[in-house]
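Fold it.
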Amino acid sequence: MNVQSRELTVTYKIVPPPSTVAPQSLSQETTHRFTVEGQPEDSKGDSELKYYALLRSSIAEARIKLGEELTAWRDAVGNAELVKEKSVKAEVEDEEEENAEE
């Protein structure tokens, strides 16, 4: 019998502005693995419900972990992204004005 590992894998890569000081405990490229505890039995029914309950638990754990890390990155980036967003909005507004004139 071949038993497969059941896990949820999440990978992300952060590309912050060059002026960003990275949080010490975090890496710009990270992979997390969250084990889906327990093994569903071969029979249908309750075992499937149990598996999905265990999967939801692993997803909740992943959301908490990623939320903490991405919040730390957001705090590290601070207002540096605002400059980037303003220039993108200005370009879009310029394009809209050009299209309106045509």
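Helices lie at 46-77, 80-101.
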